Amino acid sequence: MAIPYPRFVGSEQPAMEAARMGTPPSAQSTPPVNLTQEELKKIAAYKAVEYVKSGMIIGLGTGSTAKHAVDRIGELLRLGELRDIVGIPTSKKTHEQAVSLGIPLSDLDSHPVLHLAIDGADEVDPRLNLVKGRGGSLLREKMIEGACEKFIVIIDDSKLVKFLGGSGLAVPVEIVPFCWKNTALRLREMFRDSGCVAKLRTCGEEAEPFVTDNGNYIIDLYFEKDIGDLQAASDAILRIPCVAEHGMFLDMATTVIVAGKKGVEVIHKK
Ligand SMILES: O=C(CO)[C@H](O)[C@H](O)COP(=O)(O)O
Question: What's the pTM value of the predicted model, to 2 decimals?
Answer without folding.
Answer: 0.90
